[in-house]
């Protein structure tokens, strides 16, 4: 949803993605002790995706390592944020203080309180 312009054929998909992101925010607000992170899974090389000619598929181990790291205390600064699983974690870690205390990586409707 974040990186694609909504089109008529994808309207339901886009609406559901937006709803899931909003529900994740509510879950975090209602349960501050939880570690809730919204994830863009990318395109991972799997048997299913092998049927399609998709360039730039990520190795499944990249996703696995990212998810394990995301569950660690080191990733607490990403609480209630939106991340891509194929990121190099060193980039966000270097900006942890800035990310944690801002709207960076937060999906919002800017200017519309919800």
């Amino acid at each position: 949803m974040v990186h694609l312009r909504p089109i008529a054929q994808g309207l339901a998909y886009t609406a559901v993605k937006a709803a899931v992101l909003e529900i994740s925010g509510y879950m975090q607000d209602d349960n501050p002790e939880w570690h809730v992170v919204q994830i863009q899974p990318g395109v991972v090389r799997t048997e299913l995706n092998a049927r399609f000619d998709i360039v730039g598929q990520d190795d499944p181990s990249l996703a696995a390592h990212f998810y394990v790291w995301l569950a660690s205390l080191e990733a607490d600064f990403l609480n209630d944020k939106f991340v891509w699983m194929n990121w190099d974690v060193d980039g966000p870690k270097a900006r942890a203080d800035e990310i944690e205390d801002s709207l960076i990586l937060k999906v919002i409707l800017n200017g519309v309180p919800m």
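The two ends are 18 Å apart (CA to CA). The chain has a mean pLDDT of 85.
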